[in-house]
Amino acid sequence: MIAVTDLSFAYTPTTQIGFPDFSLTQGEHGLLLGESGSGKTTLLHVIGGLLRNYSGSVKIDERELGTFSDSSLDQFRGQRIGFIFQRNHLISALNVEQNIVMSPYLAGLKIDPERMDHVLSSLGLSEKRKSKVTQLSQGQAQRVAIARAVLNKPSIILADEPTSALDDKNCDRVIQLLMEVAGQNQSTLVVATHDQRLKDKISKQIAIR
Amino acid sequence: MNLFILVWNYLKARPLNTAINILLLSLGIGVITILLLFNKQLEQKITQNAKGIDLVVGAKGSPLQLILCNIFHVDFPTGNIKLAEAEKISRNRLVKKAIPLALGDSYSTYRIIGTNRDYAALYKGELSSGDWWNKNLEVTVGAKVAELTGLKIGDQFASAHGLTEGGHSHNEHQYVVKGILKYTNSVLDNVILTNVESVWEMHHEEGEEHDDHHSRIDSSFIPSPLIPSVAKGDSTKEITSMLIQYRSPLGAIQLPRMVNSQSSLQAASPAFETARLFSILGVGVDILMAFAYVLIVISGLSIFIALYNSLKERRYDMAIMRSMGATRSKLFISILLEGGILTLLGCMIGLLMGHSVLMLLSGMVEETQKAGISGLVFYTQEWIILGGSLVLGLLCAIIPAIQAYRTDISKVLAGN
């Protein structure tokens, strides 16, 4: 599913960062552990196709990311990868439903109302469909972001520090939720974090330094 | 979901900003639309009304006044001219047709013109009902006059001196309506036609005896070429002016000089004087135009600033959309679309405003109505305005759009 070998990335010609090799199979979850500034976000962005011009090899489904053209990488990312960020980054001009619908629209996929209903109700957002995103609580906003990430049934879900700003109870709830939605779609969940509380949730751990 | 909905929601999310941008542009476009409609229609009306009239001969005074008075019937006469002198000019071989006009009175601000049937023929006037005037004090009224004053065939009315309401009224003589004209979309709609003799009779002072009948019986009576009931060369009768059509272009060179060299007469060319009128009006129009362009430039700047600023707030939105699969060009197009929608909306509201202001104006101000200016006329230039606004919107949006195109997703997403 995901295979990283000999990967390094140069921010500038002089500052280069290397990453350990690892691979994950379909449905397997992985934890990228490392301190702030260790390059976990960079690694996540490379895997997600947000950063290009790496050296080494990153293969997703046996396809080398570097061989994609810009626009086909955009499409691949939209259809196969779901992102979750520490801050939810919902589009405040749109309501909850419109925010979620952006995901299939931008990925160039058909909007499936049944799938939409299913995802919204499984995340307890059915009542909030038409709400403004600015009126949501923190937890609700995070669930909208998760709904947006999983609506296209991505094969990979990439989460960047999804729990570090949360207290223990919410941290637990969010990681449970992520693993649950990932499980429903047979998605591979990759979480980049420095949050030690997640260590005993996901067994496959890759240390970045 | 599509780009239009997305952009529309962004515009709705900043209602005040969007409203002020649209308002600024629409004001500018509105002013331009009014000027366009007003100028075009005025020009059309003026050329239409002056069509077939090469020269106006009247008493000395302002040539512009002579034209305004005798062609458009909006100013007072410069004075009278002797019929005998007018005859002399009308007999010139360069004159194809000469139409006498006797002005002076009006009925509820609509001018009564003493003339002959040739005058109505100039504007291809046709009867819609009744008959042409025949005897003295019979009138045929223009279509708009009939509509707005309610005059019907058989009605009698007293004329008032001058052009304004409430002038000295000639109560002793009553005109009688014989017929009503069809709409010609020219000045003919706004006037009341009668023969020259009726106007003389109105102003016939007591004690002043003209022996028309005597001369009629006279065996040596030769009718005047202008007014057949009067003897040729009559030295007492006067008319206000004479409209002249040239026989050949040579007339334009010789006739005005010939007329102006006579001490008591003046010749004015409608084409020349209306061109002069437009150049005088033009200064005001130019200032208004410049004002409108300033408004449009400001609105363009304001749209640019709004897009530029909102782009800063939207960097994360852009990055998130890219992470969800949006291509660079999609974001580029969405910003262009935003600029385009703003200016298109502003332009359409502006055009609408321009037309409705003119409609209100023609409904409320009698003068515009008389001039036949309406808000319901559309010109092809309005498409140019629309296209120009779209281009303006795209221009204002191009720099923000390029920025959106260049958004470095990874940096934005990592940099929180």
Model description:
The complex is a heterodimer of chains A (209) and B (416). Chain A is of the alpha/beta class and 209 residues long. Chain A has a single domain (28-50, 71-207), classed as P-loop containing nucleotide triphosphate hydrolases (Rossmann fold, 3-Layer(aba) Sandwich). In chain A, 34% of the residues lie in helices and 22% in strands. In chain A, the strands form two sheets. In chain A, strands 1, 2, 3, 5 and 6 form a five-stranded antiparallel beta sheet that branches. A five-stranded parallel beta sheet of chain A has the order 7-8-9-4-10, sandwiched between helices. Chain A is globular. The model of chain A has no long low-confidence stretch (mean pLDDT 89). With 416 residues, chain B is an alpha+beta fold. Chain B folds into two domains: 3-46 and 281-414, no CATH class; 55-268, no CATH class. Chain B has helices at residues 3-13, 15-50, 63-70, 83-90, 117-122, 143-149, 196-202, 212-217, 250-261, 270-313, 315-323, 328-364, 366-370, 381-406, 409-414, and strands at 55-59, 81-82, 95-107, 110-114, 127-130, 138-141, 156-157, 160-161, 175-181, 191-194, 238-239, 241-246, 265-268. The model of chain B is unreliable at 206-217 (pLDDT under 50). Chains A and B meet through helix 1, helix 2 and helix 3 of A and helix 1, helix 11, helix 12 and helix 15 of B.
Features of this protein?
heterodimer; A: 209 residues; alpha/beta; Rossmann fold; five-stranded antiparallel beta sheet; five-stranded parallel beta sheet; 34% helix; 22% strand; globular; B: 416 residues; alpha+beta; 2 domains; eleven-stranded mixed beta sheet; two-stranded antiparallel ribbon; 15 helices; 13 strands
CATH architectural grouping of chain A: 3-Layer(aba) Sandwich
CATH superfamily of chain A: P-loop containing nucleotide triphosphate hydrolases
The unreliable regions of chain B are 206-217
Order of helices and strands of chain A: EEEEHEEHEHHHEHEE
Tally of separate helices of chain A: 6
Order of helices and strands of chain B: HHEHEHEEHEEHEEEEHHEEHEHHHHHH
